[in-house]
């Protein structure tokens, strides 16, 4: 491992205890409205900056369309599309969401799947014996949800911190540390995702940090690393 990789690893290791401490003190809401906000954010975040996806999720949440069980799936999709077409404010600027039609259909279909399985998203999440089982179910049945989105949803909902969130920041970090050599920074196969998750879990154990916390630590470190040019050593 070269000097640059060691610096990244040490920086992530230094941040992990603070993240663990903050999470342990945080009160994570698990009410129905909050869970739908989390699931919406994860579906909307695919190929979209996370601040934009959360702003869009806020608009949907405030409208209440995902909480009205009397609306038909067709009308729900139409209303979701109207909301996603409308620009939202991100960092003081009006931004347009990239995939309003596709994501509206996915969110409407996700709502139908959840309602057909259980009466509420909260009851559905509680029905699984393990987080791994829950992730498999969401990937298999919920439109717009891949392994990364399912892992993020279950982590953010406070279900488990033992699932890896293999986004482009994490995979870039793994590449720099020699843990990942693929060209694909969006892993859709659950079997392939699990293989790389095993490698990251080994790394997390080495850093004495749960793998679910690593995403936050790596995100912070990689954002800084990508802004600061490499300083030549004499």
From TrEMBL:
Keyword Transmembrane helix: no
Pfam families cross-referenced by the UniProt entry: Ogg-HhH
Protein name: DNA glycosidase/endonuclease, putative
Keyword Ribosomal protein attached: no
Lineage of source species: Bacteria, Pseudomonadati, Thermodesulfobacteriota, Desulfuromonadia, Geobacterales
Any Gene Ontology biological process: DNA repair
Xref: Gene3D superfamilies: Hypothetical protein, domain 2
Keywords: DNA damage, DNA repair, Endonuclease, Glycosidase, Hydrolase, Nuclease
One GO molecular-function entry: hydrolase activity, hydrolyzing N-glycosyl compounds
């Amino acid at each position: 491992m070269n000097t640059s990789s060691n610096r990244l690893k040490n920086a992530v290791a230094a941040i992990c205890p603070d993240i663990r401490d903050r999470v342990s003190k945080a009160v994570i809401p698990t009410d129905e409205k909050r869970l739908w906000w989390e699931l919406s954010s994860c579906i909307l975040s695919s190929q979209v900056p996370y601040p934009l996806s959360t702003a869009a999720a806020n608009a949907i949440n405030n409208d209440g369309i995902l909480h009205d069980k009397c609306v038909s799936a067709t009308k729900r999709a139409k209303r979701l599309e109207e909301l996603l077409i409308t620009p939202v404010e991100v960092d003081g600027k009006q931004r347009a969401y990239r995939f309003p039609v596709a994501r509206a259909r996915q969110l409407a279909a996700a709502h139908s799947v959840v309602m057909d399985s259980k009466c509420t998203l909260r009851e559905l999440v509680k029905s699984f014996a393990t987080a791994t089982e829950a992730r498999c179910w969401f990937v298999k049945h919920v439109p717009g949800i891949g392994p990364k989105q399912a892992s993020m949803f279950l982590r953010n909902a406070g279900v488990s911190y033992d699932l890896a969130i293999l986004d482009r920041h994490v995979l870039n970090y793994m590449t720099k540390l020699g843990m990942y050599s693929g060209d694909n920074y969006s892993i859709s196969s659950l079997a392939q995702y699990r293989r790389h998750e095993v490698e990251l879990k080994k790394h997390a154990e080495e850093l004495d940090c749960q793998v679910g916390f690593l995403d936050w630590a790596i995100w912070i470190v990689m954002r800084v690393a990508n802004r600061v040019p490499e300083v030549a050593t004499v």
